[in-house]
Amino acid sequence: MYLVEERRKLILEEIISAGTVYVSDLAKKYEVTYETIRKDLTNLEKKGLLVKSHGGATLRQGAIEHTFQVREKENSSFKQAIARKALEYIPPNSSMIIGTGSSNYELANLLCMKSGFKIFTDSLPVASVLIESDNQVFLFGGELRKKSSSVFGGWAVSMINDISVDLCFIGTDGFSKMGGPSTPSSSDAFLDRTIIARSEKKYILGDYTKFQRSSLFKICDWSEITALITNEIADKEGIAEVSTFTTVITC
């Protein structure tokens, strides 16, 4: 028999993994009544973690920020395709900022085999890959942020404001009904806005699933972005909508 908080923690872990849970399944699994499970789901809903539906519940979009290590494994082949397409838009010997995110990490893996670039980043995984390359690599300083494996804060912002680069690549947690790319973290959003302001060309890397997702904090409007690079299997209506504000490049 599980304690209340222990059961609710396990239910939350299950809904994070599956996306949707059902009262009947949970009641059977934890050997409690339907009413007990409904109370558990109500408690988690009040915390903003899920949305109750008929007979079950679904994870609230943007409620949980997965770590970089988790996101890295999601839709990896589609992110690799986006990275290959992004590489086509990088002029020789150019300067750039590569932000946080798993698609940007895939781009860093490709740039590791190139040379002659000046690359700035706030991402520890990106820096760790590029340290082996024949490029000039700069890691912004600041407080470490575990969820995104990156740096943030006034020190990082100050360093970004001291440079001006040819282009930047920014990740996103989604942009459904947001009017622009979004992120779960206010500190990441602020840093990304600063990066965008210091870059001549600005690219958002977002796989096809980002058309159905959104997060808490909008980074910027689509009109501020040079292009969104995504997969050709992305939602056609979503592509058409974003295309009214900026260029959409598919791969």
UniProtKB/TrEMBL annotation:
The keyword Glycosyltransferase does not apply. GO terms for molecular function: DNA binding; DNA-binding transcription factor activity. InterPro entries: Carb_Metab_HTH_regulators (IPR050313), DeoR-like_C (IPR014036), DeoR_HTH (IPR001034), NagB/RpiA_transferase-like (IPR037171), Tscrpt_reg_HTH_DeoR_CS (IPR018356), WH-like_DNA-bd_sf (IPR036388), WH_DNA-bd_sf (IPR036390). Keywords: DNA-binding, Repressor, Transcription, Transcription regulation. It comes from the Bacteria. Coiled coil: none annotated. Residues 4-59 form the HTH deoR-type domain. It holds the Pfam family DeoRC. This is DeoR/GlpR family DNA-binding transcription regulator.
